[in-house]
Amino acid sequence: MKKRDDLTKDTPEVSEGGLSRRRFMGAAALAGVAGATGLGSSVMSRETWAAAAEEARNKAHVAPGELDEYYGFWSGGHQGEVRVLGVPSMRELMRIPVFNVDSATGWGITNESKEILGGDQQYLNGDCHHPHISMTDGRYDGKYLFINDKANTRVARIRLDIMKTDKITHIPNVQAIHGLRLQKVPKTNYVFCNAEFVIPQPNDGTDFSLDNSYTMFTAIDAETMDVAWQVVVDGNLDNTDADYTGKYAASTCYNSERAVDLAGTMRNDRDWVVVFNVERIAAAVKAGNFKTIGDSKVPVVDGRGESEFTRYIPVPKNPHGLNTSPDGKYFIANGKLSPTVSVIAIDKLDDLFEDKIELRDTIVAEPELGLGPLHTTFDGRGNAYTTLFIDSQVCKWNIADAIKHYNGDKVNYIRQKLDVQYQPGHNHASLTESRDADGKWLVVLSKFSKDRFLPVGPLHPENDQLIDISGEEMKLVHDGPTYAEPHDCILVRRDQIKTKKIYERNDPYFASCRAQAEKDGVTLESDNKVIRDGNKVRVYMTSVAPQYGMTEFKVKEGDEVTVYVTNLDMVEDVTHGFCMVNHGVSMEISPQQTSSVTFTAGKPGVYWYYCNWFCHALHMEMGGRMLVEKA
What domain of life does the native source organism fall in (predicted)? Predict the structure, then answer.
């Protein structure tokens, strides 16, 4: 088999359609894009381009009252939340608090949310990067969305039927969960996550040396959200993805040196993609062939060196994104410091793990695309779209032609380059992480907006751009300012998400409320009463717009007060709120939901509580009083 270790060889003589912005400014100067197709070297005229762009914008227009074709789920970046948008309108529909505190819904304030956040392990910040939706047989099933928290080494699960976070797992033995992807086949049994930074093991302050420092690849059981197993690796871990057989996952490593300084992380000429044999790892754990570290009970296997569990495929230094093509044929590692991406044939991995071929024999193409390739997405028609951070472009290229070129054919694999504004990171095409990739829309999440929007001070928004990729030409149709680096997104058809209109009374989301009410002999759906247990006071009340079932209750200064509110309204969209003045307490109670919040009664006096979610024409009149007596 032909090997390609010299990454500087055989770069294509690219036609105008594939020239970088540095060398071809004609079409870009006229139309704001590099507009030549891969079908020839002609450049669209100003008039032709304007007509095509107008057609694309009309396609993206969603009239008032009409519904979008796709849900888009955006990571909230440093906000620690997930944002829900309609695509192609790019209208924001909802924000789902995850790792942050949200006074509107009471997330991080209510007892139910604190229980999920981990009680004493609760942090006030989060850093969300990668939202991914559960799958069955390689297709989105709309059950869960999973999201990482790089800042505090956590992974969260969101129930998509109610759009609420229902589980958060703190990952032991590692720091900074960055890359996160899901097992696609036969279903999402595992959530795969990469810990980015090497740390001593155990990390208990007895040893700070790098000799005993490493990181791990982690698999979480998607249903229980318990950590299933971990794999110790050489180097560090960046981004990850899984195949369409359920057998393999792969991750990029940009710090094979395990360095702690910038120069050190670029010392080696190559880094690698580490491939994990999920079947072998699971079998070893089942057979009891693992160890544990410190107080953690999580099974850990060793994937370093010549391990049966891993293979380390050399690629150009400091790679970043790792993406699986929707036909299940390729892992694509994005070069970052190299102008190339590395195409790994998944059907060669069995032979690799049986030691029948060499590591680099799995590479079937390494096309040069431009400066700073970070992430690649796909249209389901054999084309890939790679963000070029330094060039501020998206490069559309054909995978089959790139493979032909790698094998010596004189073929131009680049179809088009489109200027984006500015410095793109992630990109995501509609349905691209599934077998159903439909090649209609591409979202590019650019890190800088610079001059694209009204100035708002030294801190600028990022810029999310929507591109029509349904035809031969990419066409930019929308700029959208976003706050605090959303980082990544995922697009699914609207029919793949089935949401509830109102809660069911047996919903597990407020199971702890039902359990406590049962202990107190309270019927949540009808009782309005106060239960005193020493200095602990539990206040149960119902609400029907525009009135609480209890409009006054008494407590003593310093009492621990827990208020349970059950919204008895059966009407969709009639959400109630509960806000206790001067106590830092507020929460949302949607139709047929029970919510609870605990606080300490303040100084003696009168404190009003009111509904802070508009629910009725007499909404302003919906309130009551807490009377605090001297202790």
Answer: Bacteria
